[in-house]
Amino acid sequence: MLAAGGGRSVVRVKRSFLRLSLAVLAVMASLPMGAAAATSVSGKLADGTLPPTSKGAAVVRAVSPGTTVISAGGRVRSGGRYSLTVDPGVLMVIADVVRTDRKARTAVTPVFRARKGKRKTVRVSLKRTRPVRPARKAAAAAGPIATRAADGPAVAVKWFSGSGPEAVLGRGLADMLATDFVSRGEEKCGLRVVEWNHRDLIQQELDLQEKYEEYFDPSTVVKKNWVEPTVFVQGSVTTTDAWISWNIQMVDAKTGKTIGGDSSRVPADGDAFFDAESTLTDRLLDQLCPRRYEVTVDLTTQSRWPAVSSSGTVHAVLTATGNGTPATSWTGAGTMTYQGVSFTSGVPECTWAPENTPTVPWKVTLMPGDSGMLSVAWSLDGDLYATSIGTCTVDGHTATAPGQPGPRLQDPIPLTFTVPIAGGSQAISGGVDVGGSGWFHTGTLTVRRLDQGDS
Q1: What is this structure's pTM?
Q2: 223 contact partners, CB below 8 Å, separation of at least 6
Q3: Rounded Cα distance, 191 and 184, in Å
Q4: What is the mean pLDDT of residues 22-44?
Q5: pLDDT band at residue 54, thresholds of 50, 70 and 90?
Q6: 282, exposed or middle or buried, with CB in 10 Å at 0-12, 13-18, 19+?
Q7: Do 190 and 183 touch, CB atoms closer than 8 A?
């Protein structure tokens, strides 16, 4: 256990940053975005001192200046070397050097063309902190190359604010999440991750191309067609000697509405933070990626009245589909009715038989909430009930009594509640109690996420 204010805990937090950084870089290793044939880009960070593993890490990523989509990212290995597998096209490499003992540093390469099936060597100079005009004119000039961005949701991860003894973990956690989104989000739902924190450098490069077009290789001059994020991931990380906590929001870029997020904390012992990041990525991707949900109501209603008691069951299933990309809500509609209705007479002279069991519509709305939860609201568009007809014989005289109460789905509770974003169940009860008579419900409403391939 860590003692508050203890020196060992600070060391452990620094080791946590180191492990986090190395994990970021390992996960980032050469996973391409998109289905196009891949090529290799490798090189070396030069003209500067890289931090030792005890004080930080260096990360590179290949970005399309035409669209700002991140093609791939990876770690800088021993000696400053890196290697990425990217989609062919016009790219630039952006390097971030983050360290605990001094200010973070960013470097950027000139644009280059990565050709299909070819290996490209690109040197990254840590002295080149912004785009500059090439020294000599190109052999020939041509119009800018049009860039086309693939369809699908796009997310931008803003650097999280950080506070406490290891405030750098704010930027570190944001980089780690963005990296996991690149490697796992595309496969999960076609998610693209776009560069946001260094768009100023990309714009400077495009401005130079426009102003000094004759200096640039025409095969690398691109036309701006930036992908604007549909969702921003933003938040904060707070560190103490004992805890690392985060508060992350996912915000619809157009409306500013919070559509999801996550808040939690782990002990500042390194392992807990490292393990928590992977599941945090899954929780956020579950909220970012549009899915379908299966919603099932299973319940029994007991009807108790002096003349007749009855019971009936409901089994209703619907599918709620996502609205928007990424989905900001899921809605579905279906029908339900009572099944297996039975009656028990409270009067010896009377018998009861089912008479009428209508079918009524019902609907569900699901919305992402805070801390990885899903808000559920369900309702009926009508009165769900069953009636009976009674036949009574007294002193040789027979009479019928139609429309007698059977099961009725009156006032079930709760109609709104939350479950985990991956799904869950909620007990359903409620009804009407009039001195021991009335309608009484017991059952569950279950929300199940449908993954790809589920029917």
Answers
A1: 0.65
A2: 66, 144, 145, 146, 147
A3: 8
A4: 56
A5: low
A6: middle
A7: no
